[in-house]
Amino acid sequence: MTALIDVQSNASENPLPDNRKYKMIAEDVSVYYDGIHTVKNITMKFKEKSVTSLIGPSGCGKTTFLRCLNRMHDMTKNARVEGKILLDGDDLYSKDVDPIYHRRKVGMVFQKPNPFPTMSIYDNVAAGLRLNGVRDKKILDEIVEDSLKMAYLWDEVKSNLKKPAMELSGGQQQRVCIARALAIQPEVLLMDEPASALDPIATQEIEETIIDLAKEFTIIIVTHNMQQAVRVSDYTAFMYLGELIEFNETKKIFTQPQNELTARYVQGQFG
Questions:
Q1: What is the pLDDT of residue 2?
Q2: How far apart, in whole angstroms, are the C-alpha atoms of residue 51 and residue 75?
Q3: Which of 92, 190, 206, 258 is the most buried (most CB within 10 A)?
Q4: What single-letter DSSP state applies at residue 15?
């Protein structure tokens, strides 16, 4: 079986070490909207310091599942989540867990760049820190600089941090959003189509950022771009109609899929 996707990946070419622990585990997770079962009994394990891509046709439940991992459905009327999301063994849906505290551990970058429109570059990156009570300017300065460096934006903006973030290019705005998520020092970073609204050059910059961040963070991304999944991810999960169809190392998903539906999707026969 020959896939139509070029499987030359920029992610680690060596097999991931077997001793790499699972950072996050989803156990039998379901999501209901107004009683409709939209994500169906999904179990997945995410290894630390790796990139996992969620692929599948529009409406298959990728983003809905991703939002479970950050308890974002807590803010959605008539949404209900069942199952467990474990972060280092702790159930994030336990009644004893503070959702705000949890969101500091699991950061989120959205599909379209969404810097706070009235804030400067600096204030955008520092916003989460200030909400969490950080007031010391020296500490803020250090974390803002470190976060912008991790997002590969520091050299481009360091002399103009008071510039409104909305005046940056689309790719730069998205990297501000990545830096903002990194500033609160999460352990897991969720990305929902982080490059879909960007031009090819900005997309390449975001992908290079993702690959480098995986040296320190567990990253889970939603993407419609199968070539992007190949380029950046160690693991790939194919979803269809709210169900997890297949989950494996990315190269195996695209060259040796075990499920016929997966094979048809990665060969571009539907989607």
A1: 45
A2: 27
A3: 190
A4: P
pLDDT digits (tens, 9 = 90+) for 50-78: 999 999 999 999 999 999 999 988 888 89
Q: Read off the pLDDT band of 5 (50, 70, 90).
A: low
Lowest mean pLDDT among 96-110, 128-142, 255-269: 96-110
pTM assigned to the model: 0.90
What is the CATH architecture assignment of 22-263? 3-Layer(aba) Sandwich (3.40)
Task: Locate 17 and state its tokens.
Answer: 């070490």
Q: Whole-angstrom Cα distance, residue 271 to residue 268?
A: 7
Q: Give the highest mean pLDDT range of 7-11, 18-22, 99-103, 191-195.
A: 191-195
Q: Which among 71, 108, 125 has a CA at the least distance from the CA of 194?
A: 108
Q: What is the DSSP string of 140-163?
A: HHHHHHHHHHHTT-HHHHTT-TTS
Q: Which residue has the tokens 């989950």?
A: 247
Q: Using alpha carbons, list the distances in angstroms from residue 99 to 69, 70, 81, 105.
A: 11, 8, 14, 10
The CA–CA distances, whole Å, from 151 to 109, 119, 147, 212, 238 equal 12, 18, 6, 9, 28
Q: In 78-100, which positions are buried (b, 16+ CB within 10 angstroms) versus exposed (e)?
A: ebebebbbbbeeeebbeeeeeee
| pLDDT per position as a tens digit, 30-50 | 999 998 999 999 999 999 999
DSSP 16-57: PPTTPPEEEEEEEEEEEETTEEEEEEEEEEEETT-EEEEE-S
Domain assignments of the chain as residue spans, ordered by start: 22-263
Q: Cα dihedral sign for 182, 185, 189, 190?
A: negative
Query: What distance lies between CA 231 and its chain's CA centroid?
Result: 15
Structure token digits, residue 37 = 């079962």
